Amino acid sequence: MITEIVTFQMKDEASLANPSSHARKVIRDFLTLVLVAPGAQNAYYGQFIEKLETVVMFIGWNSIDDHKKFMSSSNYETHINHLRTIINDETPLTILHVPFTPSDDPSPALGANSKVGATEVVFFYFPSTLTSGDKDAIMSSVDKMRPVMERSESLALYDGWAVEEAVPTPGPQASEREMSRVYVNVVGWVDVEAHMRFQGSEDFGRNIHHLLGIKDMRHTAVFHVKLQAM
To answer: How far apart are CA 80 and CA 214, in angstroms?
Structure first.
């Protein structure tokens, strides 16, 4: 299984938690179509608490090939064009495919666990020229934080490298930067406050340098989202 992560900005303000929201209906119509496609397993959607105009969708597929077949289907263009009616076309729509670990299905951190009230989503951006040795060194630093996370109030943690090797790097100087490889974390919390308590803990303070000191890290984007399951 592999997880497609889609992010985009909406044209207009909307609350996806509101059942009468037009944007919510458009997204749900699109994901309903996705879930009848061969190979589609599950789908979750929401908007980042820190950037309410930004929507994120997590779609589980058996394989990337299943997703590609869906995109080449006869009715795909009609439905993706309907989705585009709510997308701000001045900002990029981003699609990543991530084979998560320790399980390839990260849904317990996305909302399959009813106790998860907020999902932390972290995107780490690195040079696209990373070697396998570079990635091993990065993961060695990441692994030093795992016991710290296990001692926290987190309910589920999944991570993985996006298979895309050339992803635009966000940030104020993005246009001047080379493309990036992206490493993704998703963490399930009871609520955002639980994550904030962890960030304020001595355990976090003593160990966060393992992440902040990772060589060649260009940019980090951290968001929280209350995801809704289809």
So the answer is: 38
Among residues 72, 68, 58, 54, the alpha carbon closest in space to that of 11 is found at 54
pLDDT tens digits along 104-148:
999 999 989 899 999 999 999 999 999 999 999 999 999 999 999
Residue 185's identity, in one-letter code, is: N
What is the average pLDDT score of the chain? 93
Amino acid 91: pLDDT: 86
Give the β-pairing of 40-47 and 94-98.
unpaired
User: Rounded to whole angstroms, how far apart are CA atoms 157 and 150?
Assistant: 9
- Residue pair 138/147 in contact (Cβ under 8 Å)? The answer is no
Question: How far is the first Cα of the chain from the last one, in angstroms, to the nearest whole number?
Answer: 18
Tell me which residue of 160, 229, 217 sits closest to 3, measured CA to CA. 160
DSSP state of 88: -
Is the pTM value of this prediction over 0.70? yes
Q: How many residues are listed for the chain in this entry? A: 230
